[in-house]
Amino acid sequence: MNPIYLALDLPRLDAAVALAQKVKGHVGGLKLGLEFFCAHGHHGVHEVAKVGLPIFLDLKLHDIPNTVAGAMQSIHVLEPAIVTIHAAGGRAMMEDAKAAAGENCKVVAVTVLTSLDGSDLSATGIGSSAHDQVLRLTDLAAEAGLDGIVCSGHEVAQVHKRWKNGYFVVPGLRPAEASPNGIGGGDQKRTMTPRAARDAGASVLVIGRPISRAEDPVAAARAIEGTL
Ligand SMILES: O=C(O)c1cc(=O)[nH]c(=O)n1[C@@H]1O[C@H](COP(=O)(O)O)[C@@H](O)[C@H]1O
């Protein structure tokens, strides 16, 4: 199975559907995040689902347990294959989110965003390195009964050792020929190539701008697929 999920971080619904149609032979699924969902909601998800690939609903839910469980129930009808919540919401929030999710929906917890490094964490009062914080939140997510976590390629090998049957989503990926933060991706700090992340144990490779902002998105997707 192709592990690439294309992040459709585009403001226009027609452009998102057109891009998904173009590259669908070279990716395994489609990720719809906050930009898309805030603009197009359930209707937009239904339209993209017509492309025929599994949908990853990246809503990064983070609130009190009752509110997050309610949100999970409200998205049942969209039948997502994967949904994200924030591990920092705590164990009870994660347990309630998982309990409210549909049977066929994997619930994965974002640990430390790939746009953050140790100094960013320190500015929020977290004294540990990004690596240690990912491991701590991974253990919490596993205890809460989630399916897996989101982390950068730099932590996934370690995470894999601690959680053998976990499901590991890895964003912040840049093909070798791109500069680490190229293609408008200067917000990513903990980056890796798709191949290295897969070799380290990633279950899902989330890739957005290296495909969506490429001059030829089909060629870019095909090239990345060819490296795996
Ligand atoms: O949950 C995510 O998917 C996510 C977590 C994270 O730590 N970092 C991260 O970049 N993402 C998402 O992964 C995608 C990365 O996009 P590109 O940087 O354009 O490849 C975006 O849709 C982000 O919202």
From TrEMBL:
Binding sites annotated in the UniProt record for substrate: D9, K31, T114, R174, Q188, G208, R209
Encoding gene, per UniProt annotation: pyrF
GO BP field: 'de novo' pyrimidine nucleobase biosynthetic process; 'de novo' UMP biosynthetic process
Catalytic activity, reaction form: orotidine 5'-phosphate + H(+) = UMP + CO2
Source organism per UniProt: Novosphingobium flavum
GO CC, one annotated term: cytosol
An example Gene Ontology molecular-function term: orotidine-5'-phosphate decarboxylase activity
SUPFAM superfamilies: Ribulose-phoshate binding barrel (SSF51366)
Signal peptide: none
Name of the protein this chain belongs to: Orotidine 5'-phosphate decarboxylase
E.C. code: 4.1.1.23
Residue span(s) of domain Orotidine 5'-phosphate decarboxylase: 3-224
UniProt KW Lyase keyword: yes
Role this protein plays: Catalyzes the decarboxylation of orotidine 5'-monophosphate (OMP) to uridine 5'-monophosphate (UMP).
Pfam families (alphabetical): OMPdecase
Keyword Lyase among UniProt keywords: yes
PANTHER family: OROTIDINE 5'-PHOSPHATE DECARBOXYLASE (PTHR32119)
Active site: D58, K60, D63
Upper taxonomic lineage: Bacteria, Pseudomonadati, Pseudomonadota, Alphaproteobacteria, Sphingomonadales
